[in-house]
Amino acid sequence: MLKTEDASHVKVTGLIDKAAEQAICHQSQDPIDWNLPIQPPDWLSDQQYVRMVSNLIYGEKATVKACEKLQAYFGPGSYTDFLTSQIQDEQHHAHIYERYLQMLDREIDPSPEWCDLIGDCLDHHTSPVALMLAFHVLLEGEAVFLQKLIGKHMSCPLFRQMNDKIRTDEARHAAFGRVMLPELIKQEPKGLMTWARDLWFASANILVAEYLDPAIRASGMLDHWLETRWAGQEELLSGLGVS
Ligand SMILES: [Fe+2]
Ligand SMILES: [Fe+2]
Fold first, then answer.
1. Where are the domains of the chain?
2. What digits encode the pLDDT tens for the residues 156-203?
3. pLDDT of 137-152, one tens digit each?
4. DSSP states of the chain as a string?
5. What per-residue confidence (pLDDT) applies to 143?
6. How far is the CA of 100 from the centre of ligand 1 (A)?
7. Given this model, what pLDDT does residue 6 score?
8. Nearest bound ligand to CA 19?
9. Rounded to the nearest whole angstrom, what is the distance from the C-alpha of residue 180 to the centroid of ligand 2?
10. Stated pTM of the model
11. Which bound ligand lies closest to the C-alpha atom of 174?
């Protein structure tokens, strides 16, 4: 059972209140207009597009498992209560993406590399601090980033709206990670920066790079972009106590 600061309990209680007000799964009217047009982007193949949506579904479901593991670690209290709200959110997000795939008349088909990477993160050897770092800070942070990127570059009005709505929930989950990670690191200090770097680059390559034009990958532009983005992530993690 984790001993934590009162300040963290207060912040997490605030996030539970926000979840009750903001979570899209609790809204009396469905915030998604399912009558919006579906227009898959012309710069991705049909298979790539289905894979991208499938990877999102797989990520949502894996996050539910990470939350359940963290609940078992925390035991009863506000942290577990927040995670209960998050599990409801993630299940709802998975359901939204699944409905979208059904509207495309396609089956879920995630990248095997993504399943392996996430499976390793959920491995029973992964400690609570590593789980919080992976799922709540890195992957939730990436989800928010990718959803903003999708908003700019995806042509499909329905998909854009889904991501805009889901992003608010994900930002709350990432905020929980930023409150909890320093607490967990105090209890269980260990060098995780190299592990985090490897995980971040592997995720970025699977989730973004595989959709890029090979000429862009070969030009070194992607590597430069990833290194620049990782520098920002590393600064964030250092500020949260990761070494
Ligand atoms: Fe989610
Ligand atoms: Fe989330």
1. 6-25+42-192
2. 999 999 999 999 999 999 999 999 999 999 887 778 999 999 999 999
3. 998 888 788 777 777 7
4. -----HHHHHHHHHHHHHHHHH-GGG-SS-SS-TTS-----TTS-HHHHHHHHHHHHHHHHHHHHHHHHHHHHH-SSHHHHHHHHHHHHHHHHHHHHHHHHHHTT------HHHHHHHHHHTSTT--HHHHIIIIIIIIHHHHHHHHHHHHHH---HHHHHHHHHHHHHHHHHHHHHHHHHHHHHHHS----HHHHHHHHHHHHHHHTGGGS-HHHHHTTHHHHHHHHHHHHHHHHHHHTT--
5. 79
6. 15
7. 82
8. 2
9. 15
10. 0.93
11. 2
Burial of 21 (0-12, 13-18, 19+ CB in 10 A): exposed
Å from CA of 60 to ligand 2 middle: 7
Of residues 37 and 219, more confidently modeled: 37
Homologous superfamily of 6-25+42-192 in CATH?
A: Ferritin, core subunit, four-helix bundle (1.20.1260.10)
Residues 168 and 107: beta-carbon distance below 8 Å: no
Alpha-carbon radius of gyration of the chain:
18
- Residue 216 backbone dihedrals phi, psi, to 5 degrees: -70, -40
Give CA angle at 144 (177, 73), nearest 5°: 25
> What type of residue is 187?
Q
Q: Is the pLDDT of residue 96 over 70?
A: yes
Task: Compute the distance between CA of residue 148 and CA of residue 153 in angstroms, rounded to an integer.
Answer: 9
